[in-house]
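Researcher: Next entry in the queue.
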Amino acid sequence: MSKFERSTRPSTAFVLRYGLAVLSVAAALSITQLLRAYFETTANSLFFCAIVISSWFGGLGPGLLAGLLSVGVIDYFHTLGVNAEDVPRLAVFLVSAASISWLSGEQRRAKESLRQARDELELKVQERTAELRQINEELRAEIAERKNAEGALLSSEAQLKQAQAVAHLGSYEVDALTGHTRWSDEVFRILGLDPASGSLSRQEFVERLVHPEDREYAMQGYDRVVHEGKLYDLEYRVIRPDGSVRFVQSMGEPIRTPDGGAVVRLVGALLDTTERKQSEDSLARLNRTLQTLYQCNQALVRASDEYELLQTVCRILVEVGRVRMAWVGYRELDREKSIRPVAQAGYDEGYVESVKATWEDTERGHGPTGTAIRTGKPSWTQNIQTDSSIAPWRTEALKRGYGSNISLPLMSDGATFGALTLYDQQPNAFNERTVEQFTELADNLAYGVIALRTRAERSRAEHALREAQAELAHVTRVMTMGELAASIAHEINQPLAAVVTNANACLRWLTGPTPNLDEAQAAVARIARDGNRASDVIGRIRALVKKKQVILNLMMNGIEAMSAVADRSRDLLIRSCRYESDKVLIAVQDSGTGLETESLDHLFTAFFTTKPKGMGMGLAISRSIIEAHGGKLWASPNDGPGATFQFTLHVGSKEEEAR
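Model: Structure for this entry, 659 residues:
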């Protein structure tokens, strides 16, 4: 608003208010004059109306002005002068006009005040209403937020309950002073209790639910937490009302007084770790089983004796597999169909002997071992204390701490020849997975036993074959010597017979009446010739024997070099061929241990040997024999295993013919 507008508005209002007073009086005068034209006597009450109107709309000033104007108009138009008699009347009129003006003004002011008060009240009511409306909206928003928070809290509580149920994790509080507790629903579920029954006090919890073997540990842990005020993490077992045992982990934080004094409350969580424990135990058992299978397989590879293998496998099952006892029994085909124990390890105390197991279809043959042998399928007892199939041996088994057992058949070509039986300290120690793994072990063990038996039979057969071969070689040598002796006798008998014939002829020529010296001399000459002929035969035989001695010596060396070979075939090869133009080459090749490069230079030196019990003369003599016949003897390592000895001799030499 401008300054001009602010200055003109009061003056305009002043003119309008006082102008209204003048107009009101003028209107009253005009109406009065008009009425007098028709009526002789006319009241001046209209002027009071003008005064009232002026006072009502203009206030006291315009009302007084209207009153003065009305007196003047009345006096002027009616009396045309003022006399003493009119003074009281005019005074009364003025007073009345003034009173009316004042009353009208007061009434107007009161009305204005009321209107203003009403307007102010309405404004305040509106303001208050707006404030109340805003407060109401804020309250509504706050209520909505609270409802949302309550919904979120309920949802969070539901999610927390669901999460606790999924995680098997419950929360609790313990009043350290009174021992009173407060549990979540999941704690009740973990402990197997009804939430409607209410939580137990700390003392009741320990006495009624904690496993007797873990109570002292749990009490000591609780007391230590209360006294030391540190974070805690305890693991122990609880026994549910139905008798089942659960593993739990209790962890939390102690709450002290505001001044940091004594512990007044424990806030923590209870975690059901039974499944985790079972998984850990299953994993540990699986690792032990795999380690057991590995070591048993190693024993199978290294085994050289059947009963040593069985004893080793039983020992591994006890020491590595941690079974209580393991034993192996063989099926007997006697009248009682008994089972003969052949290997055993672990805590037995005479149990195997007391069992007197049989595989006959009787009560004593319906135990795991007898059933496995009779049916050729694994048989096990989950709980020795309750299973009826092991009733005849239950008392003795429980005395030795056996909780469960399993028997696995040992089979060959579809027939059962024995069984491997294991006893564990815990009930239900054998499940489908362990049965499958131990069945594999039993199959491997049966294969190893059959392999060892086959190896033993082959060894016996090889020994018998070697004896037969040695006997055959001896017979062959005897026959060869016989043939050689016959040949030698034939070769020598011819010159000897000629010597005898010539000697007899010589005697006849000398003993006659007239000795014939010429014929006797000729006979003696023939005797000398036949004697030399016999000597040559013997020389050639000696040379042949020496050559054969060299070949036999090289063959025996090759056989001895192959005696320690077990991982490959033992082959001895003898071959001959033309060498150069006038020689023959004989080679003896073996697949034995071979020759070292350092020993090649000293191999044919006298008294040098590579054999533990050798004298070092065989090869030296062989070389001297070959060289005496104009040949050469040498040795060389093969490209593969073994070595080759070779020598050469002249064919049809003059020296040989002379000899």
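Model: Residues 86-167 form the longest helix (82 residues).
Researcher: Noted, moving on.
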